[in-house]
Amino acid sequence: MYSQTPADWRETNRKRWDERVPIHLASDFYDVAAFRAGEDALRDFERAEVGDVRGRSLLHLQCHIGLDTLSWARHGASRVVGLDFSETAVDAAREFAAELGLGPERAAFVTADVYDAAQAVPDSAYDIVYTGVGALCWLPDIQRWAETAACLVAPGGFLYLAEFHPLTDILDDATGSHLEHDYFAREAWVEEDPHGYVDTTTPTVHNRSVEWQHPIGEVVSALAAAGLRIDFLHEHDMTLFPRFGALEIRDGAYRFPKDRPRVPLMYSLKASKPS
After folding, report:
1. What is the pLDDT of residues 101-112, one digit of tens each?
2. Structural domains of the chain ordered from first start
3. Considering the entire predicted model, what is its pTM?
């Protein structure tokens, strides 16, 4: 339900994420065993769009348990830094880094709110600032996010964002074919959900969440206002989990059946800072 932003929104969300870290570590969705065996946690389109990261520094905002962050290190990034507001998630990320033999000079993880990133991370600027899927919905102020991220991009570097398309937030969960919510709503979305995108069976205590939807125009405009140049905005007809009951796995991702008109389910963008 839409409502005014509750004063405890940050702590509410932190408790939810802290509780779900061990659930995620044990889940097939994150497949920690495959990651430990060398499998890449990144999506094919992300690797193609970001390009060669060898010898470049990378900051991952809202990194969760660090699998994406450390995958960039495996691809040759000279230094990766992950930041997340869940200390439980950051502890898990540090353990993974240690298992891979990556010391803090190659892979560092910081517990902090994303809006405090400029003061919390060890370096003042990075060649690449990366934000992975499912991050922006937890932030109430996209302008402040864009300003924070942009200030951490080194001259000549870029921000890369991969996200779920905001169109998916307004469609019905069963079929993804009917409009049920307001695309331009700015109020907080507050709900009690004992499940999530990974596990629907494990009992949990902290089930309340506070989220926001951010239309693509708002995101692009915020980044441009923060001084970045938009290099591209791509929309994708696939997603990472069965958000809608009508989705099917095809070509390694969840998509609508071939006999249905396609709609964008994810998007990605790159925004550069002039040298």
Report:
1. 999 999 999 999
2. 2-272 (3.40.50.150)
3. 0.96
